[in-house]
Design brief:
The chain is mainly alpha-helical and 175 residues long. It is built from five helices and no strands. Helix 1 packs antiparallel against helix 3.
Amino acid sequence: MKTQTDRVLAVLKVISWIVYIGLSIATGVLIISFILTLFGNPEVSKDVDLGVDLSSLYAYSKVHFTVLMVIAIILSALKAGLFYKVIQLFSKLDLNHPFSSGVATIILRISHVALEIGILAIIANGYAKWLMKKGISMHLPLESNEFLFLAGIIYVLAQIFKKGIELQSENELTI
């Protein structure tokens, strides 16, 4: 008989797969939009998948457009990678013995990816603000503080899991 926790985890695993697939598709769309803009149709830059019109940036400088799009693609790929790590976490998680080194390692990696996303988003926001000071009109919806906060929380959870592993191994030795 499945417990309520098992059902919730199963639903969360399905949701994680859906989000992962969605973010992977979004990353692919960004890559295709970027390639089409650079090598074919500059009109595509008006409706990049970011929900932003980057045509003024493209008209101003292809180099700045390329840098910003590469950062956006990397951010999108990192977000997809974050959810892939969550899926890996669900695969390794054993509710009978939740404190395992594999689970702790994945949780620590999730915190590192969240930190990378936060730092890269801060860089992208700074770069976009610098470009806006040069007169280019755009607004990038890049969240950075949220991912830094998330990285901190997940890092604390990883440390708790490490302590749980230590306590579990001590208990196994005393029995």
